[in-house]
Design a protein that fits this description.
The protein is an alpha+beta fold and about 450 residues long. It is built from 14 helices and 22 strands. α8 packs antiparallel against α9 and α8 (about 270-285) packs parallel to α14.
Length: about 450
């Protein structure tokens, strides 16, 4: 757990105190206004009597401010790390000293843009003897370093007419990492599902390019594997059994440019791509293949070497955490040419990208044409559900017709670009945002089973 030091004891100048009236005090003072008006109308010589009520409320509010507790200590404890798109809970502890400590208070937190606090960070806390703590939920929006920048606490005086507030600068920070929640669980489920179909057993033996053994032919085996010379020698049908080639190179290339930094269903596309890459990378490492991760926008940004073995997955996760958001346009030619120059043998390149105009799509097609001459290219894009909604929605106004026409044009350009990629021999996965990981793993296993890696 990440713990912030007690800011009050560490740095006194970071504390700000304030006392102000509650809503009850304001309403009570305003209630006396009609009485003061009536006194001024019917007894102008005693107009000062009309001020008795608001002055009494003011004096009681001042008394409440003097009687209320003045000393308070705030501290906050947070997690060691959190996953993007999830929730992180921080614990805010409050200690109020004084002869009449309150039974309840309110606390609030101020965060940086990477996280958003529930209820704007305001939470009620029950106190026992002036001590209490409460969990504050934070929604992680982007990767990076999340910070709790300030803490607030306020409580009412004994009469309920004044608020006592303390503001303290906080020093809590924790990293927001790529989402790997359930990676092993989901990958295990995928393994189990395909194992029930006999796929994993075939991937090890019987379905590959490397000769493994000569076995007696059994029903269900591929007839093309029959060795007729050996069968004639032994007077029985014999077939060659192969095993799948291991140590295939899988390179995940993540486009982190401007269009991939835009959100889909509340989370940037690049984060959904990173989560899918980690899921597929975990499966690939388990199956004995070697994995690398690259990221680029206008130029290459993150370049990792090939790693192998399930124990290397934490290194892949740390490298994925370095992929940053960018506002620059994607340069496919520069990035993919640089990547191809780093590969010394045929590899499977999984490209996560997004394009919304014909120009960027044309640059992607040109870069892919050179890449597929030597490597196996798999392009993964997320369906633009928002644009599809504009197209499917029944128009109620002229603006709806304009949106539908524009959406139809964008989707037509997108479909044309994907069709051009398929004609080049590029494998394409166009998936919903919440199924991209499973679709990618299924596509990878299918290509491996077909011995295309």
């Amino acid at each position: 757990m990440s713990v912030a030091t007690d800011p009050l004891n560490a740095e006194r100048r970071s504390t700000r105190a304030a006392v102000y009236p509650t809503r009850a005090a304001v309403v009570a003072a305003a209630t006396g206004a009609p009485f003061a008006l009536l006194v001024g109308v019917f007894a102008p010589g005693r107009w000062y009597a009309g001020l008795a009520w608001p002055l009494t409320v003011l004096l009681l509010t001042l008394l409440d401010a003097l009687l209320g507790s003045r000393k308070a200590k705030l501290s906050v404890v947070g997690p060691d790390s959190a996953s993007v798109g999830g929730q992180a809970d921080v614990t805010v502890a409050l200690a109020i000293d004084g002869p009449r400590p309150p039974r309840a208070a309110q606390v609030a937190v101020a965060t940086n843009p990477l996280v958003r606090a529930e209820e704007e960070g305001r939470t009620a806390v029950e106190l026992a003897g002036g001590r209490g703590s409460v969990l504050v939920g934070l929604h992680t929006l982007r990767r990076g370093t999340a910070r709790i920048e300030a803490l607030w606490a306020r409580w009412r005086g004994p009469l309920g007419l004044s608020w006592h507030q303390r503001q303290v600068e906080a020093a809590l920070a924790f990293p927001v990492l790529p989402d790997i929640r359930g990676v092993e669980e989901r990958a295990s489920q995928i393994f189990q599902r395909h194992a029930l179909q006999g796929l994993l057993a075939q991937m090890d033996r019987g379905d590959g390019s490397d000769f493994d053994a000569m076995v007696e032919y059994r029903a269900g085996m591929d007839r093309r594997a029959i060795d007729w010379k050996q069968s004639a020698r032994h007077s029985k049908l014999h077939a060659k059994e192969f095993r799948t080639e291991r140590n295939a190179q899988i390179v995940f290339a993540v486009d982190s440019g401007r269009q991939m930094s835009e959100p889909v269903a509340g989370l940037p596309r690049v984060d959904r791509a990173v989560s899918a890459a980690l899921l597929a990378g975990w499966v690939a490492l388990k199956l004995g293949d070697r994995v690398a991760l690259h990221a680029f926008d206008s130029r290459p940004r993150v370049a990792g070497g090939l790693i192998g073995g399930a124990a290397a997955f934490p290194a892949l996760q740390r490298l994925a955490a370095e992929i940053d958001y960018s506002g620059e346009e994607t340069n496919y030619s520069f990035a993919l040419t640089t990547l191809a120059g780093l590969l010394t043998r045929r590899s499977m390149i999984v490209l996560f990208t997004e394009f919304t105009d014909a120009t960027s799509a044309d640059f992607l097609v040109r870069a892919a044409r050179k890449l597929v001459e030597k490597h196996l290219l798999l392009v993964v894009v997320l369906r633009d559900e928002e644009v599809e909604t504009f197209l499917d929605r029944a128009p109620d106004a002229v603006e709806d017709v304009t949106r539908a026409v524009t959406a139809a044009g964008l989707l037509a350009d997108r479909k044309l670009a994907l069709t051009r990629l398929r004609h080049l021999g590029v494998h394409v996965i166009e998936s919903e945002h919440d199924r991209v990981g499973e679709r990618l793993v299924a596509g990878y296993i299918d290509l491996k089973r077909r011995n295309l890696l």
